[in-house]
Each structure stands twice: as C-alpha cells, then as structure tokens.
TrEMBL record:
Gene3D superfamilies: Four-carbon acid sugar kinase, nucleotide binding domain, Putative sugar-binding, N-terminal domain. One of its GO terms (molecular function) is ATP binding. SUPFAM superfamilies: YgbK-like. Residues 3-226 form the Four-carbon acid sugar kinase N-terminal domain. This is 3-oxo-tetronate kinase. Its EC number is 2.7.1.217. Belongs to the four-carbon acid sugar kinase family. InterPro entries: 4-carb_acid_sugar_kinase_N, 4-carb_acid_sugar_kinase_N_sf, NBD_C, NBD_C_sf, OtnK.
Length: 421
C-alpha cells in the first residue's frame, strides 16, 4: 500500500477512490475504522477509510481519524491523506482543523496543506476564498446546508477558527510558479497552508509539491497528481485501476436525504420522467405517522427488475428544512431521517433488493451502515466524483451509487440506472 486515506464521509471516500482509481491505482474502500487491513493491504495501492465523522463532536472525529491513521500506517501506508468536502463543510467547532491537527501530531509533522478545490465540479480556491461555480461558497446554496451551513468563504479564517496551528495562504501566483517554489513555500514555516487552485494543472502541481509531506488534506481532486508522483518515486507500477464490475441483476431503489440544490433538481427530473416517488417528512416520522413498513410496501409494489427504481426522498427546500429543525432540533431532524433511510435499506436488502442509489453523504453513511458491508470495490464513473461501487463482503454483492449531495448532472438517477441495463 502506498496511500492511506481517511475520509470524513462515505460519498467523499467514494469520490476520492474514483479519482485514485482513474489515475491507475488499485483502490479498496473500507467502511469505518478497520481492525486490521492485512487481508487487503497487498492487493491495493491505496486504501480509503470512509468514516462518518463530519458532523460528530470534534473529539470523536479526532479519535476515529487517528485510529484509522494507525491502521493505515500498520498496513504500510507511506503517505496519509485526510479527505473532507470540496465545500469545506464544517462548523467553527470542527472538524477539519482538529482532525488535521491531530493527524499532524500523530505523524510527528508540523507542515501540511489544505486544498478543497475540485474544478471539474465547480469548486475553486482563489486568494484563499472558496468558490462554488461563480459564487462564493457563502453565497451558494451551501449557506443553507442542514448540518454545516457555510457562511464564511475565507478558508484561512474558517480553518484558523478551528485550530491552534498557524494557518496561512499560498496564493495563486506561487502555485503558478515552479513546483520547487511551491514546495519551498509549503515547508517554509510550520503550519497548514491553504493553497489556491483553480485548475486541474494547479492540482497536479500541488500533488508534486506535496510529494514529501506525511499528510495531505483536501478535497478529492488534490489527489489527482499523486499516482504520477508515486510512479516517479518508483512505488507504483504503470498498472491500471480496474473499473469493470460484474453487475448482478436485481431490484433497486433510490434513497435521497440530501437537501442540496442539485439533489432537489435531480428529484424533479426523475419526477418528470415518471419515476414512482414517495416523500418523507421528519415531523411525520417523529410522530409515528410514517413507518418503515409503509415505505417498504411502496417500494416493493413499484419495483421490478429492469424498470426504473422508485425514489424515496426527504429532500426539501431550505424553509421546510428550517421548520423541521425548529420543531425537532437540527441534529435530531437529521438523525430521524437517517435512521429511517437506514431501516428501509436494511428491510429492502432482506427482501432481495441489491441496487441502491443514495444521495447525500450522511444519508449514504446511514444506508450503507445498515447493509453490513465493510469493503467496496470501485467501478465505473457515473458523473465526476460518483462511481458505481460493489460491496465485497456482504452476504451477496450489492451495487451502490453513493452520490454527494451536490454532485451529478440533473439526470443523474436515470443515468446511473441506465448504466446497469
Ligand atoms: N426534510 C428534512 N428536514 C431536516 N433535515 C433533513 C431533511 N431531509 C434530510 N435531512 C437531513 O439533512 C442531512 C443531509 O445531509 P447529507 O450529508 O445526507 O446530504 P448533503 O449534505 O447534501 O450531502 P453531502 O454531505 O454529500 O454534500 C441528513 O442528516 C438528513 O437526514
Ligand atoms: O468533496 C466533495 O464535495 C464530496 O466528496 C463530499 O465530500 C460531499 O459530501
């Protein structure tokens, strides 16, 4: 194993796995802190550990991340990567700063970088400010995220509020210069550098400049140059990460708990295409009006092999989400929905369903936790950042498309499904 990665949510882990696999690395994704990686360490160039730590209290996120780092190091990882969201989803209390700081401490290093840029999905960092397409993140729909509203676009300030480690900016004029100049700027003084990046070329150069860092932190795209670095170091064969999966036949469902703007557009597109749909309301779940068995009955009566899968969603506009959060509390509203999605997934799998398209990182984490799977193989790309993946160790293989809330084109659900037929 060369690279050991720790991702703070499941869809983020899958996103990173896809980038690494596209660059020719053999990747295995592990769900949760692994006890031992002995069984997979020599079959993978990169192991990506998917945590569900993004919105946990900082000390919990730190404990999980350091435990994952230890397992990855014991399995031989030469470099560690901490993957968080390309929209830097976090609160002032954490978790990006505390986890980065703890991992640096654990590795005995005082220098790292932070770069959430992902130009292919519209995320860029310029003068330390995070943009989502043409808007600052704080003007984008991310300002209304149900769990981690992003209201400050200045990443030096955002990260600075989360950690005692010095945070500074490496601006684009340095990134545009030589790789050596950039590497020197990164290690010029102890601390974490927010590195500007507005293109894939910038990201590849940052990968090269970070070649000797013990820890890289960022979005998935900052890993796009790493395979090349590892080949130059003689660590990686010119192998090709496989993206072919055997696709078992079976029935499917779409479960969407993301309230992001893109997921809501994808739901509308599915509605126009005639996908059978059922909407969930956290208040009705909380007062017992909506039950797992009703949802399962709806899905079963609308699913058949070869047909478009039914869609169960709780996704709603910011005002509706705010009303539910006011009544139930932000955390509880989220958990109520996640627990139900999880129960529905478990019940459907018990009834023979083996294909799940899931939208939202927290939602996907909850859904996959119910399946008892601990390792995933990475398959073909559906849209940037989202591949089909297959469970390697559940009772029978399951195909999953785990979509980050804001990722994918408007016809994502249909596109994903049509790849299987
Ligand atoms: N109607 C609703 N009201 C309140 N909370 C909701 C509602 N629907 C979903 N939620 C919660 O909102 C959260 C959405 O987070 P999730 O990570 O699944 O999506 P996302 O943030 O858009 O995706 P990503 O993290 O991949 O960007 C979940 O905790 C979910 O349970
Ligand atoms: O980086 C991203 O945007 C995604 O991989 C993600 O983490 C969303 O939850």
């Amino acid at each position: 194993m060369i690279l050991g990665a720790i991702a703070d949510d499941l869809t983020g882990a899958t996103d990173l796995s896809l980038i690494l696999s596209r660059s020719g690395m053999r990747v295995v994704q592990v769900i949760g802190v692994p006890n031992s990686l002995d069984a997979i360490a020599d079959k993978a160039d990169a192991v990506v550990v998917a945590l569900k730590s993004r919105t946990n209290p900082a000390e919990e996120a730190v404990a999980m991340s350091v435990a994952a780092a230890t397992a990855l190091q014991e399995a031989g990882a030469k470099q560690l990567f901490f993957k968080y969201c390309s929209t830097f989803d976090s609160t002032d209390e954490g978790n990006i700063g505390p986890v980065a700081e703890a991992l640096m401490d654990h590795l005995g290093t005082d220098v790292s970088i932070a770069c959430p840029s992902f130009p292919e999905n519209g995320r860029t960092v310029y003068k330390g400010h995070l943009f989502v397409f043409d808007q600052l993140v704080s003007d984008s729909p991310m300002k209304d995220h149900p769990l981690t509203p992003m209201r400050d676009p200045d990443l030096v300030s955002v990260l600075g509020r989360q950690t005692k480690i010095p945070v500074r900016l490496i601006a684009h004029d340095i990134v545009r210069g030589t790789t050596e100049g950039l590497a020197a700027a990164i290690s010029a003084a102890p601390g974490i550098s927010i590195v500007d990046a507005i293109s894939d070329d910038d990201l590849r150069k940052i990968g090269h400049a970070a070649a000797d860092l013990a820890l890289i932190t960022g979005g998935s795209a900052v890993a796009m140059g790493l395979a090349e670095v590892y080949r130059e170091k003689g660590w990686l064969e010119p192998s090709s990460g496989s993206d072919t999966l055997d696709l078992p036949e079976g029935k499917g469902v779409i479960l969407a708990g993301s309230c992001s703007q893109m997921t809501r557009k994808q739901i509308e597109k599915a509605r126009l295409t005639g996908v059978p749909m059922m909407q969930l309301d956290p208040l009705r779940i909380a007062n017992g009006e909506t039950k797992t068995e009703d949802i399962v009955a709806f899905v079963e009566s609308n699913a058949a092999t070869g047909r478009l899968p039914p869609l169960v969603y709780s996704s709603a506009d910011p005002s509706v989400v705010a009303a539910a959060q006011q009544a139930l509390g932000r955390q509880r509203a989220g958990e109520i929905v996640e627990n139900l999605m999880s129960a529905v997934a478990a019940a459907l799998v018990a009834r023979g369903f083996n294909r799940i398209i899931s939208a939202g990182g927290e939602t996907s984490g909850a859904v996959v936790a119910a399946l008892g799977a601990s390792t995933l193989a990475i398959g073909p790309e559906i849209d940037p950042g989202v591949p089909w993946v297959m469970t390697l160790d559940a009772d029978r293989p399951m195909l999953l498309a785990l979509k980050s809330g804001n990722f994918g084109s408007e016809d994502f659900f249909l596109k994903a499904w049509s790849m299987l037929s």
